[in-house]
């Protein structure tokens, strides 16, 4: 077994109630040293609250504890003030000090070797040219780069980013990502990012946590979250998928076979289910393909042109639908009945 | 250790201020419940229900009536209709704010008097202001309508832009959509503006005194200085305070219920409603008429009087000096307290932010009431201090200190709001950013907050300075002997019928009053640029 990595950020049983509303409940995860974690979730799922609790902006937590590098920074008994936590925080909106220049902003939290640190950061963030300008004189993308540079300038133990790119247009976003990932890896900064954009999470994160209704649904690597979602919420929230009813018909070793509206499907199941149990199966678009010779028929009820591919919505039974992607040079008509086949390596069953 | 005590004092301040602003009410309660005299019997039986209350209510009705009649059309045509001079009237219609109601009052009283302009023009004389709330209300509304105008202009310009466009796209004409959509959704602005006007009318003393129209404030003054009955004055004051607090809480309630956040959609790209030439002329004439009677006629009258006035520099200089001294001290004290209170509120929890808001409720106390409440403590303090100290001017110092204290209670909100408005332009996350970068509270205040709100502090100082120089009833009733300010001088001169001699003090007050008008127009300009 590999040695377990040292946790920079460790959260156990974190709960937060505000005016009898459960904002967060029983959140536990561990972010290893130097890795980038990402909290994903629909709006009002508690992502930002978790981040603010870690930063110390929330006066008191209701239960659990937050530990950074083995030191408790927050529990029910005591709270270390935000200024003493050594955590960097980047906000969604522009939070640069408007009366200070870019250089002065970056140096704000630096105690020693200001000049050296500043020059280094200006260089790696490629913002030397705007060093003497004021925040209102630079673009939104530059503002966010300066904000990140400012928050890592004092060498924080942990960097928190609260939807830092949601105000930027997509093109700009994908220009910043490689630079940011490179810097974070090089500087070995443990980072936790909150976002609602899955692409952002896949691009940046080593670990992803999915939050819903104040509870952490799953914490794992991006491929783990995508391929082995722990429950229906994660399965439907992450990626593009359809869920069909299924009945377990046969379990042979690691291989489980289920009966579904599109026929029998077998594959290695992530979770164990007893035979004849009624459950649901997650169907990803890439698991399904058109097949003229197949006996399984479905009707095309919707079609979206997406450039290189087409997205079809197929009606399998009265109440069940699945999605399918196909190259756009093969065309099917709306209302057409087509044959489909599937190819599963492993199957995901959820209740 | 020192920091801890400093922090305790710092966060204890709102509570301390709340106690201070409640103390005048405590004095009033004590004075009215534990003493009784003949004067009160007389007032209660002969004037309270037959004169004071109806007079006040009628006056309020007519002030609000006229203000609405002036402010709604002005705000609408200036913000939405295209006509010649629109930009000019946009600002010109706020100018009357610079003229205190009592100045307008003596100008128009003279205008319609025996030796006034109207008489020389028509040869007819009728005292149209004699016990007449309709005309007196009109004069008051000339100086008060800008409050409502500003609120409505704001509502019409920001809030309703997209809705107007939506309703037009649904086939409703611009004129119809005003009554169907704009007016119904602007009602909170209308209501808040009206309640502020009511509060101002309730606390007005100078104008009604000049017209000899008995309302609460003048009756309180008379009870004190004609009947020498502090208990009657205190009783009347308590009734008036109740009215004022009802109005104030009504205003707060509406503000809280309705979201006053401005829609940030730019108002520049909105096309103005095009009018027929006849309607354009009508708009122009209406706005011109309002500016003429509320600003130009008074100013011209004052200038012509000033030229004829026998008042010479020698007489006016000591008064300017005293006004300046009082306003300076008062404004410095107010600015310091407003600043500390603001810093306090930006770091406070939700519970104490309620306390902070409560600590400023003194703005709803009419000056007359504050003065009545502070007279007993002043005389008490003077009595004690003359016994234990032999400093000759001790009585003057004590009186001045309590006068400044009265200003503090009355105008704290003005200073606080000036600073808070400035600070609102910056995101709250600046403070959080600063703390995550390792800066503690004191460092953040020093390095981030103070530099950012500097202009707000300056504005707070200016506004408080101007408000104190214009203030009449508190200064009139509490000032130490010989400390006449410009406003007090105007009261005394009009009392003696020396209208023309008032011109120079009045012009000085008006030119001071133009400073806040300038500031507010500049602020709305920069706000427009930012979006």
Give a verbal description of the structure.
- The complex is a heterodimer of chains A (351) and B (531).
- Helices cover 22% and strands 38% of the residues of chain A.
- Chain A is an alpha+beta fold and 351 residues long.
- Chain A is globular, with a radius of gyration of 24 Å.
- The relative contact order of chain A is 0.12.
- The model of chain A has no long low-confidence stretch (mean pLDDT 87).
- With 531 residues, chain B is mostly helical.
- Helix content of chain B is 79%, strand content 1%.
- Chain B has helices at residues 2-33, 38-80, 86-92, 101-111, 117-122, 133-159, 161-169, 174-185, 187-203, 206-210, 216-225, 230-257, 277-308, 313-347, 350-358, 367-388, 394-424, 429-436, 441-470, 473-478, 486-495, 503-530, and strands at 81-82, 273-274.
- Chain B has a two-stranded parallel sheet with strand order 1-2.
- Chain B starts with a helix and ends with a helix.
- Mean pLDDT of chain B is 85; it is low at 262-267 and 527-531.
- The A-B interface holds A 55-57, 59, 81-89, 91, 93-95, 97-99, 108-109, 111, 150-151, 153-154 and B 349, 426-427, 429-430, 432-441, 447-448, 451-452.
Total of helices of chain B: 22
Largest interface: A-B, 27 and 19 residues
H/E topology pattern of chain B: HHEHHHHHHHHHHEHHHHHHHHHH
Mean pLDDT of chain A: 87
Order of helices and strands of chain A: EEEHEEEHHHEHEHEEHHEEEEEEEEEEE
Low-confidence stretches of chain A: none
Distance between the termini of chain B: 46 Å
For the largest beta-sheet of chain B, the strand count, sense and barrel status come to: 2 strands, parallel
Main sheet: strand order of chain B: 1-2
> Which oligomerization state do the chains in this entry correspond to?
heterodimer
The shape of chain A, in one word, is globular
Structural class call of chain A reads alpha+beta
Radius of gyration of chain A: 24 Å
Question: Looking at the structure, what is the overall shape of chain B?
Answer: globular
Overall pLDDT metric of chain B? 85
How many runs of DSSP E, i.e. beta strands of chain B? 2
In which range does the helix fraction of chain A lie? Answer: 10-25%
User: Helix coverage percent of residues of chain B?
Assistant: over 70%
End-to-end C-alpha gap of chain A? 32 Å
Beta-strand percent range of chain A: 35-45%
Number of strands of chain A: 21
């Amino acid at each position: 077994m590999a040695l377990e990595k040292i946790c920079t950020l460790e959260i156990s049983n974190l709960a937060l109630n505000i005016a009898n509303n459960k904002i967060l409940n029983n959140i536990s995860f561990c972010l290893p040293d130097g890795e980038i974690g990402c909290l994903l979730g629909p709006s009002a799922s508690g992502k930002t609250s978790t981040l603010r609790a870690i930063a110390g902006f929330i006066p008191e937590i209701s239960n659990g504890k937050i530990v950074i590098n083995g030191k408790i920074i927050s529990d029910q008994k005591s709270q270390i003030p935000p200024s003493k936590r050594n955590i960097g925080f980047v906000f969604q909106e522009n939070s640069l000090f408007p009366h200070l220049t870019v250089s002065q902003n970056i140096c704000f939290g630096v105690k020693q070797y200001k000049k050296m640190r500043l020059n280094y950061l200006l260089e790696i963030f490629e913002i030397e040219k705007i060093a003497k300008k004021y925040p209102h004189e630079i673009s939104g993308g530059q503002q966010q780069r300066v904000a990140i540079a400012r928050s890592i300038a004092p060498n924080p133990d942990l960097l928190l980013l609260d939807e830092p790119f949601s105000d930027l247009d997509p093109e700009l976003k994908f220009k910043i990502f490689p630079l940011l990932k490179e810097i974070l890896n090089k500087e070995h900064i443990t980072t936790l990012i909150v976002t609602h954009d899955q692409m952002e999470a896949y691009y940046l994160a080593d670990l992803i946590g999915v939050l819903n209704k104040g509870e952490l649904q799953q914490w794992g690597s991006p491929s783990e979250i995508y391929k082995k979602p722990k429950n229906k919420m994660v399965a439907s929230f992450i990626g593009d998928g359809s869920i069909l009813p299924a009945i377990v018909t046969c379990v042979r070793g690691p291989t489980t076979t289920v009966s579904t509206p599109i026929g029998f499907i077998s594959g290695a199941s992530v979770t164990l289910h007893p035979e004849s149990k009624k459950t649901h199966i997650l169907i990803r678009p890439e698991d399904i393909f058109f097949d003229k010779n197949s006996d399984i028929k479905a009707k095309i009820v919707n079609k979206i042109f997406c450039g290189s591919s087409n997205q079809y919505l197929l009606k399998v039974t009265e109440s069940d639908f699945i999605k399918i992607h196909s190259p756009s040079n093969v065309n099917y008509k709306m209302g057409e009945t087509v044959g489909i086949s599937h190819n599963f390596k492993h199957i995901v069953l959820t209740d | 250790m020192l920091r801890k005590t400093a922090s305790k004092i710092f966060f204890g301040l709102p509570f301390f201020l709340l106690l201070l602003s409640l103390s005048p009410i405590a004095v009033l309660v004590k004075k009215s419940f534990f003493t009784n005299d003949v004067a009160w019997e007389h007032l209660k039986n002969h004037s309270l229900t037959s004169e004071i209350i109806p007079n006040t209510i009628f006056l309020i009705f007519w002030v609000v009536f006229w203000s609405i009649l002036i402010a709604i059309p002005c705000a609408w045509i200036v913000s939405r209709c295209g006509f010649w001079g629109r930009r000019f009237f946009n600002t010109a219609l706020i100018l009357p704010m610079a003229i205190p109601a009592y100045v307008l009052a003596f100008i128009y009283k003279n205008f319609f008097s025996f030796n006034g302009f109207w008489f020389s023009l028509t040869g007819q004389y009728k005292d149209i202001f004699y016990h007449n709330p309709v005309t007196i209300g009109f004069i008051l509304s000339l100086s008060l309508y800008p409050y409502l105008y500003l609120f409505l202009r704001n509502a019409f310009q920001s809030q309703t832009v997209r809705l107007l466009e939506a309703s037009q796209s649904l086939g409703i004409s611009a004129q119809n959509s005003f009554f169907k959509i704009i007016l119904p959704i602007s009602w909170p602005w209308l209501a808040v503006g009206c309640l502020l006007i009511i509060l101002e009318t309730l606390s007005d003393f100078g104008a009604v005194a000049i017209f000899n129209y008995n309302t609460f404030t003048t009756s309180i003054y008379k009870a004190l200085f004609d009947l020498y009955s502090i208990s009657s004055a205190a009783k009347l004051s308590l009734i008036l305070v109740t009215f004022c607090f009802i109005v104030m809480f009504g205003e707060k309630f509406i503000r809280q219920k309705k979201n006053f956040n401005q829609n940030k959609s730019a108002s520049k790209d909105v096309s103005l409603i095009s009018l027929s030439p006849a309607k354009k002329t009508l708009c122009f004439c209406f706005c011109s008429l309002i500016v003429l009677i509320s600003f130009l006629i008074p100013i011209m009258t004052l200038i012509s009087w000033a030229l004829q006035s026998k008042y010479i520099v020698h007489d006016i200089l000591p008064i300017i000096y005293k006004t300046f001294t009082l306003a300076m001290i008062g404004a410095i004290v107010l600015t310091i307290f407003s600043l500390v209170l603001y810093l306090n509120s930006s770091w406070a929890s939700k519970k104490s932010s309620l306390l902070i808001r409560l600590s400023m409720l003194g703005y709803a106390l009419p000056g007359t009431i504050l003065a009545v409440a502070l007279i007993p403590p002043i005389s008490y303090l003077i009595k004690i201090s003359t016994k234990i100290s032999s400093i000759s001017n001790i009585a003057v110092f004590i009186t001045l200190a309590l006068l400044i204290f009265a200003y503090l209670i009355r105008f704290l909100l003005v200073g606080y709001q000036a600073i808070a408005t400035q600070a609102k332009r910056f995101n709250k996350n600046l403070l959080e950013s600063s703390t995550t970068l390792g800066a503690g509270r004191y460092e953040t205040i020093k390095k981030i907050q103070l530099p950012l709100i500097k202009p707000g502090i300056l504005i707070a100082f200016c506004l408080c300075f101007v408000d104190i120089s214009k203030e009449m009833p508190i200064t009139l009733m509490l000032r130490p002997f010989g400390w006449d300010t410009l406003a007090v001088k105007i009261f005394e001169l009009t009392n003696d019928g020396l209208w023309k001699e008032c011109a120079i003090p009045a012009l000085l007050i008006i030119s001071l009053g133009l400073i806040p008008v300038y500031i507010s127009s500049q602020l709305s300009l920069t706000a427009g640029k930012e979006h």
